[in-house]
Fold this protein.
Amino acid sequence: MDFGFETIGNACLIVHDNGPLLATDPWIRGTAYFGSWVTSHEIPNEQLENVKAAEYLWISHGHPDHLSHESLEELRDKKILLADHYGGRIARDLRADGFDVTVMTDGQWTKLSDRVRILTIGDIQQDSILLVDMDGKLIVNSNDASDLGAGSFVHNVVSQFDISFLLCLTGYGDADMINFFDEDGERIPPPALLHEPLLDGIESHLKQFGIRYYVPFSAQHSYQRSDSVWAESCATPLSAYEGSFHSKEHEMLPPFCRFDLLKQEASSISPPKRPGVVVPCEEFGDNWSDELESGDAAQIEAYLRPITHLQTFLGFINFRVGGRDNRIVINPDHKRGVTFEAPRYSLMKCIEWNIFDDLMIGNYVKTTLHGPWKHQGTAALYPDFIPFIGKYADNAGARTPAELKKYFDTYRERGFLKVDDPDARAAIEQYSPAP
């Protein structure tokens, strides 16, 4: 293909201009979340070679189904492009590992070839979006990112293009922590099991932004670990998209597709689906009978204690490892608590590597809420728990009130901080009041 794009894998967009030019979030090898996830379909050799031939890579955020270290080992000759994430963790770590990294300025176009330029915007959740101008046709790659302040900017850009494409996450909702249990040890069925209609919100989104085409994106994974394969019934099969799109004004393209911009033709790529397998969690280092070792509990507490926001709402965190409880008091004045039942190896690696999100999204860790939480299930962990640990502390190094104020103030100053949810807005405004 001389000029156009392909979508493949989980969230991989391949841009062509006289050959492969740019590939995004290239998870082309290995697993994610300590072996819990694999791509739902094989990546055909043609697209695999196209990723390897691209000059540039763009990586949206640090989750391993987007930033795959095993995949990057095959792509060491590439120029990696990143949004300007506060704290610069991804750029710093990749440079330390020998990669050629460029951090782009939010909201400014960068020319990659005579016919292609790109623009990226980072957000407060340490994710980012990518706009690709292909000689007057626009691709909006939102991957997992929500609109946290860039919506009006993107709308203005889209209005300048006659033809545009939206690539973004849709699905039943398993790409988050959904493995909750009640205090009697019974699993609480996650909403994703309801298999609710997928695309009603997308159709209104397309209309609002004036985007013509939609490509289902960033949800093409399967579960394989023996302790997470239960969640496969919550994952979104390709068949779920059939019959879900009803707009007569817009068009949905296949999740794996090729679009030739010179011919204005779309065609489906039909990669083989991976066979369903169950891999013992021990193959990834985890044994549920292993207890914490000497010094582990102190290391966990040393990791959590500096995250001062937890003290504003949480009484305790309990880690049940190898059947033994290890309770850490956060603030005895609060009655709410949470238990994470986890295998030792991946728990301690997440603490050591500051990647708490990875522990949650694999959906083998069992979570139990205690006391008067405002919500149940995943909603209870937002906006006060998961973002303040996995996004602000782990990735941005913002743990204290002063650090959090600087963090949120920075995004306000950039003009990309907008939160519609009142609870999330209140959590942020404790540190950075809206003007």
